[in-house]
Design goal:
With 173 residues, the protein is α+β, with helices and mostly antiparallel strands. It contains 6 helices and 6 strands; from the N terminus they run H-H-H-H-E-E-E-E-E-E-H-H.
Length: 173
């Protein structure tokens, strides 16, 4: 008779251990510590990195951040690094002007995130001037790429509810 209670106790202990391991596995799935990247934030960060390279005349870096369809043309326009021009303007840091917005596809570009960056340009003896650039960011292979770059007009900032979409949606004339 002692064998039966021992077997029952052993069975209960085994069930308790199994239940504990199952709940730990389920709990681990529910409390995954891997953060899900916010696509808008990832696109904006990549856009800012691209514009930092552009204003620093680091074209090899900037071109490599462009979408495949645009990369070769960029490298063709900027084949070798140019020495910095000491008489050129002072360039301020590249900042994100506002949160990214979704931009629709056009006949020339796919849909993506519209990001507006800004930086100041100060020519010697002149007041600083803010420069705004809209970038269309598209995702491929888990990475965000610059698909389109346009200057943002004062009218985009003043009269448009979405300056990024306005600047990126203009038809080249």
């Amino acid at each position: 008779m002692t064998a039966r209670p021992r077997t029952t106790a052993l069975g209960l202990a085994l069930l308790a251990a199994l239940a504990a391991s199952c709940s730990a596995t389920t709990g681990e799935k529910n409390t995954d510590q891997t953060p899900t990247a916010d696509p808008a934030a990832a696109a904006a960060d990549r856009a800012r990195t691209y514009m930092q390279a552009v204003v620093a005349d680091e074209w090899s870096t900037a071109c490599n951040l462009m979408a495949d369809t645009r990369r070769a043309a960029c490298h063709g326009r900027h084949p070798t690094p140019e020495p910095p021009d000491p008489s050129g303007p002072a360039i301020g840091p590249v900042l994100l002007d506002r949160p990214p917005t979704r931009v629709p596809a056009t006949s020339d570009h796919p849909a993506g995130w519209g990001v507006i960056t800004t930086h100041t340009v100060t020519w010697p003896g002149k007041p600083a001037r803010a420069s705004y650039t809209a970038l269309r960011m598209t995702e491929a292979g888990g990475t965000w790429w610059v698909e389109q770059r346009e200057d943002v007009a004062d009218s985009d900032l003043t009269y448009s509810g979405d300056p990024a979409a306005s600047a990126l949606g203009r038809v080249a004339g």
